[in-house]
Each structure stands twice: as structure tokens, then as C-alpha cells.
Amino acid sequence: MEFFLQLLIQGLSVGFLYALAALGFVMIFKSSSVLNFAHGELLAIGAFIFLVFSVRLNLPIPIAFLFTLAGTFAMGFVIERLFLRPLIGEALIEVIMLTVGLAAMFKGLLLVIFGGNLFNYPDFLPKALTIEWGAITIPPVYVASFIIGIIFLSIFGFFFKYSSQGIYMRSVADNQPAALSLGVHVRRVFAMSWAIAALVCALSGIILGIMNGINVHDISIMGLKVFPVVILGGLESIGGAIIGGLIIGLLETFTGGYLSTSLKEVIPYVVLVFILLVKPYGLFGLVEIERV
Amino acid sequence: MEDNILLQLNNISVVYSDVIQVLKGVSLVVKKGQIVSLLGSNGAGKTTTLKAISGLLKPENGKVTEGNIVYEGHLIQNSAPEQITRLGIIQVLEGRQPFKYLTVEENLRVGTATRWGKPYKKDLELVYHYFQPLVARKNRLAGYCSGGELQMLVMGRALMAHPKLLLLDEPSLGLAPFLVREIFEIVKRINEEQRTTIMLVEQNANMALLIAHYGYVMENGKIVMEDEAKKLRENPDVKEFYLGTAASGVLKSYKEVKSYKRRKRWL
Amino acid sequence: MRRLRFHPCGNFKERYEEELTIFTTDFGRFWLLVGLLILFVVIPFLSKPYLLYVINHIGMAAIAAIGLNILIGYTGQISLGHGAFFGVGAYAAAILGTAGGFPFWLSVIAAGVITAWVGMLFGIPSVRLKHLYLTIATLAGQFILQYLFVQWESLTKGPEGIMLPRATLFGVDVKGDRAFYYVIFVSFVILTWIAVNLVRTRYGRAFIAIRDNDRAAEGMGIPIFRYKLLSFAISSFYAGFAGGLSAYYIGSITPEPYTLFLSVEYIAMIIIGGLGSIPGSVFGAIFITLLNELLSHATEFFMNIGALTKIALTIAPLREFVFGLAIVFFIIFEPKGLAEVWRIIKSSFKLWPFSY
């Protein structure tokens, strides 16, 4: 029973992390319909920028954190400007392949700069965050990730629901010509969504780094895990991404705990194929209406 | 140039994808505070004319290749829609294009995009004042609204932007005659009360000419006739081809070569 | 003898068959002959073993890339599992060759057929899925297959891998780069010939119709699911065949090479070469294989200069960077790929000096 509970908690927090990681992905997809294969690399870049600020430059953690968010936000803008803007209106496969190319580029660059070693952040989380509940202890990382995650999910929830910019962004995703006719700056919205997505990625990357340490290869594999998560939840739905993340996280930890650790890596994809066969648009995705 | 001219199209040509020429030298003038209606059959180039003004040609790979568009002293041909909308030209697209997954009120708020950051509460009230039925639907997803409500919604959305020139593309499309009358009355009221200049593209020539001050008739990418709306309504050709009744009040048949020839002269 | 046909100075085609011909002029046929002569007589005897080794790899990559182009470029179904299918072919050939005791030629062909079935299996989601969702389904296929390569130890021997017996063909030992060169390029020529002709038949036209608008294609009476599966099968056959050849050529296989990165490499080949173009697939295969070789040489070069080992170690990951850069560069600046560049070069020769 204890083992079960431990797995449950671990699964939920891993799942929560997946959800957070998927958030940036969904954001890009929602506003510009780009399937971003460079997602894992964006996570890694965020984690490494934080490493540079906090360890190499020895800045205080909160300042390093803010700098990282600002830096990745700017980077998102630049990526959109340089690589994605020329492709607006091009075929799907070209956009997908572009992000694949970007992924290879970023990964190579990170490896050149940092190498393939494992890095760790200094242990800055207060021990007070540890929750002990009977025989079960929840380490501070999980608690912190949960708190940060909730905070940011609600910030983004509010942003998209109530702020004007958020509404403009949703309008572009919904009906681009109409948004254009009302003077919504569509290109700026695309850039914004990349910037925000990069920022969210940095956030998840940092939490990931606190949990498992930072390694280019590991994190970029994490990025691919986002696919089962978002497909499960439906590509357009932020709420779906959270539920998808939790399901995949639980599935993985329980498979790892009770069956085998190697099966753990592949089980999300097996589930993915079955779900796609039964519900082609995921559990919460919008059914696409198409006509000849 | 006269002071009360708001918009002037000088001999513009529009080409799509570098090969398909749709407008062949269109010139027209829109005076401040008037309703100008643009009539013509399908494919005559009415919508293209509107899009050339509002800058929405660009995403469709269209371009103004000749002539110029003057709006309040600015040359605006081939400018980006973001800039043109910020000068006060807002187009209401054909076929009601709501943001389906946004609520009615959120839809209206998108209309503030050109004046981002300014208060919009008063504008919302104004829109609800003109379009009463929207109040009850405020928090509903636009995708579930009826055609009439949607038409009000998209027009209200455009009003939120405080347009100086409102381009309406077929507001009556697919609406019941009763609703059409209501919508046109509102258009007229907006024009009179808000002093908004309106350019109206319509198939329903009868209604359009009733509320308009001035009218243009397009055929095959050219302006073939222009006059004050009152006079256009009396014109026998317009009566026959667009209002559906001949001078004598009886429908004419194609056998009558005379009218056929007269039409041909236009094309 | 009929008159030689030269390039006409306009479109004078009168019959449908003329539109369909592969060679519009006799010069085309002549150059093909010259090309084949160079391919089979000149290259194998003038090249050093290392060069032959590289060319052999290009040949195998080209076969697999042509297969992928049939699926992506002609049928419009984006697959991220081609690397795994290549691996399925390699494993099938290895298992048939060792445990099954099949002869070389049979096990390679059987590898193609088996991979075709596996490809169809993973193509089944295309009944209901398209675009992004299908792409992700094939990504899942890639990971599942990768998992099976490592974990299904009774069949694949897991991470240890399988040693293959020496290939024999018609009683003759196929050993060394030159012998394999002939095997690979005879298959290459045959498979290319099949592919070029396939896209002109009703099947090829059905594929293109599905790519351009699957709903409309269905409306015109094309059973799209059957054709999509057929496309998956053909494409996987090419991958499996190439995989089988490579297993025999290298002599032993392990699960490592058949990763997502290999799939990406194949997609890069057809994008850089040109989507929906058979010669493009070949250009892409040449480009990527050479790029790979060049980059690993650069690494080695610096490694050998003692003082620069440190630089060499930092250069190794540059391979990935350059690779990504090449993809990004082509997509942004020449989305139609090398095939388009080739067409431009050819036509500027043809039209010289009156290029307008």
C-alpha cells in the first residue's frame, strides 16, 4: 500500500511536470498550428540558461530565475522571427521538418557548449517544503514543482480567459482572416505565442533539472514525451494537456513500479496508438470540420 | 481635392497570384458621412474592391498593381491590414466570420485590437444598445448563435474599433427578409448617429439603394455605372438587372434582343 | 531509322502518351546509357575501397529514400517511422539468414516483404488519422519498434545483436565492397525503374490524388484507405529491402542505429532532395551521406592532431548542428530541394544563351 501511494504521488508529480511541459507545446499549436519537434530542446535551453545564471554567474536564485524567464521570452521572439515567419502559409511537412531541423541545431549547439554531462543545480529549495505523511515523504522538489505549476497554470489561465492580449491570441487561432480584418496583429501574435511558449518551456525545464539533473539527451527525450501527452488530451486543449499529462505520468510510474522499467519508456506510445485508433482527435480535441 | 472626400480609389487594378486579374481600373469616391453602396453580380469584383481597401488582399496573394488608394491623404494601397485598420478602416467580412470558440463578449473585445489598452466598457454598452439581442447571449459561445445574431455580432465587433469607414460585405446574406430590414435600419442609424461612413456591398440591391446616398454598379472588374442612389433606383437598366423588375413592372424575357444588347454594352 | 528527337521549343504534345514519356528526347536515353555505363563500368574500377564504401551507403540510402518519397512526397502521408522500418528489414534479413537459413537473395527480398507487412500494420491508423495525428502515430510506431529491437531478446538477441553469415549469390561469394557495389546498384537500378514507372500508373496517380485532396479523391471513387496502405507497404518494402542489404553489407547488426534520428535523416534526404521527385530522393541520399561522412572526417581529422583533441571533442556534436542547419536552410531557401536546383541548371543549359 505504501509502495502504491508512493508511486501514486510520484506519478502525479511526474504527470504534472508533463502537463507543464505540454503547455508550451499546446500554446504554439493553438495559435499557429505548428507541431514543434524542437520542444525538448527548448526545455533544455531554459534549464541551461538557468544553470548559467545561477551557478556560473552565481546570481541569487530569484534573480537568476527572472533573468532566465526574460531571456527565453526574448529567444522565443527571435526563433519565430528568424525561422518560422518565412514559412507562414507553407505546407505542413515543411514546417514540421523545420522544427526537426531546429531541434538538431539546438541540441548540437547545447552539446558543443555544455557537453553531454550531467549537471546539477545547487540545492536551494528549503527543507521545510518536505511533506511527511505517515511513512510517505514527498521531497521538496515535488512540492515546489506543484506550487510553481499551479501558480503558472492559473496565470496563463487568467491571461487567456480575461486579458485582451490573450483574447486576441485565441481569436487568431480561431479565425485568422477575421482577426486580420479587425486589426489584430497576427504576426505579433505568432511571435508572442512562441515567446510565451519558450518561457513556459524554460519553467518546466528548470523544474525538470531540479528533479533529475540536467543532461541534454535526457531532456530532449522528455520533449518527445510531450506528444503522447498532448495527443491524449487533444492538441488544442490546455485542460486536456493537464489531464493527459497526469494520465501518462501515472501510467509510466505504475508500469515502472509493477511491471518493468524498460516497458515504462514505451508504454505511453502504445497507449497513444490505441487512443488514436478509437478517438482520432484525442480525448478533448476539437473535431476538425472539413469540406472538399 | 474636396474636403469631404474620405476615400478615393484611382484606377486600381488587382491581380491575384501574379496572373489572375480581377479588377481592371476601378475608380470610386466615398464622401464623408455617406453610405455608398457597391452593386453587381457574383464575381464582379465587389469583395475584391473592399479587400483592396482594407489590405486583406495580401494573405490571399493578391496585389494592387496599378493605381492608388487615397484615404485621408494617406496612400494605403498594399499596406498591411494592421496599419490600415489603425487608420480607422474596418471591414466586416462576407459570410459572418465569428470566433466560434469565443463567447459573444470576447468576440466584441477582439474589436478593440486597434486601440489596445484603452477602456472599452462604454463601447460595449454602445454595441449592446444598437444590437439588443446580443445582451442575452453575452456569455454564450459564438459558435452556437443564430445567423441573425452572428451578423449583429460581427457588425458590433467592427463598431468596437471606432471605425471612420466601415466596409460591410453582404450583411444580408442568408438572412430572413424581416431580419434584413432590421439590420439595414441599424446600419442607417449607425451612419446617422455615429457619423460613420459606410461602404456597403450587397446583392440585395433594393435594400441597399434604399439606405444608401450614392451607388456604384460593377461588372467584370469595372465600374459600369454610378449615380445617386435615388437616381439609380429609377434607372431602367438597374431596375431590370438588379431590382428584378422592368420599367413596365413585368419581367422581360431574354428573347427581347434590345435589353440583351443593352446589357452587353456594359460588359 | 526514325529521326532523332530533340527538345522542342514549346509544348507540342498531341497525345496523352507523349505527356507520360520519361524521356522527351533521344538525348535523354543516350545520357541514361552513358550514366549506366559510368555506374557499372567506370566507378567500381576507378574508386578506392573507401570511396566505394561511401557510394554503397549512398546506394542503400537512396533505395530507402525513394521508398519514403513514395509515401510522403507522392501520397502525402508523413511518416516518422522510416528508420525503424529500415531496422525491421535489417533484423528480418539477419534472422532469416541465421535462424531461418535462407540464402542471401531470398532473405533480403523476404526482408522487404516482411517490412511491407509491418509497414501496413503501422499504416492502419491512417484509416482515421491524417496530417499531424498520423505523423504522431508513426512516431509512436518508431518508438514501439525500437523497443522491440532491444527487448524481444528471443528473436533479436537484444543489445548483443546478430552476426550475419557471408552473402552468397548464385554460388559466388559476395565479399568486399566491389561485389556488394554490384548487388546494391543492380537492385537500385531495378527499384528506381519500378518507382519511376509506378508513379505514372493508375496507382501513382491515385497516390497523388490522395496527397492533393483525399476527400476529393474518395469522391472520385478511389478507395483511399486501400491505397494509403498500399503506399505504406511499398514504401516499407523499399526501406526493408535496403535494410536487409545493409545488414548483409555490414555483417552484423545491433539496435542502436535504427533510432528516430535515422527517420529524421531520411526525411531530411527527401526534403533536401525534393519532395515528390525520384531523382530528388537520390540527390538527397547523396547529400546527406556525404555530409555525414564529411562531418565525421572533420572530427577525426582534429582528433588525430594531438593538440587539437579538445577541439575535436567539441566538434563531434557540431555534426548534429550542421545537419539541422542544412535542413533549415533548404526549407527556408529552396523548399523544392536539390531536384529544383538541378532542373534550373539543366534548363539554363538548354536555353542558353536565350534564357527568356
How would you describe what is shown here?
The complex is a heterotrimer of chains A (292), B (267) and C (356). Chain A is an all-alpha fold and 292 residues long. Chain A has a single domain, classed as ABC transporter involved in vitamin B12 uptake, BtuC (Orthogonal Bundle). Helices cover 76% and strands 2% of the residues of chain A. A two-stranded antiparallel ribbon of chain A has the order 1-2. In chain A, strand 1 and strand 2 form a beta hairpin. In chain A, helix 2 runs antiparallel to helix 3, helix 5 crosses helix 6 and helix 10 crosses helix 11. The radius of gyration of chain A is 19 Å and the shape is globular. In chain B, strand 7, helix 7 and strand 8 form a beta-alpha-beta unit. The radius of gyration of chain B is 19 Å and the shape is globular. Chain B is α/β, with parallel strands linked by helices and 267 residues long. In chain B, 37% of the residues lie in helices and 26% in strands. Chain B folds into two domains: 230 residues, P-loop containing nucleotide triphosphate hydrolases (Rossmann fold), CATH 3.40.50; 32 residues, no CATH class. In chain B, helix 3 runs parallel beside helix 6. The mean pLDDT of chain B is 84. Chain C is mainly α. Helix content of chain C is 73%, strand content 2%. A two-stranded antiparallel ribbon of chain C has the order 1-4. In chain C, a hairpin with a 2-residue loop joins strand 2 and strand 3. In chain C, helix 3 packs across helix 9, helix 12 crosses helix 13 and helix 13 runs antiparallel to helix 14. The radius of gyration of chain C is 21 Å and the shape is globular. The mean pLDDT of chain C is 82. At the A-C interface, helix 4, helix 9 and helix 11 of A face helix 6, helix 10, helix 12 and helix 15 of C.
Relevant terms:
heterotrimer; A: 292 residues; mainly alpha; ABC transporter involved in vitamin B12 uptake, BtuC; 2 strands; 2% strand; C: 356 residues; two-stranded antiparallel ribbon; 4 strands; globular
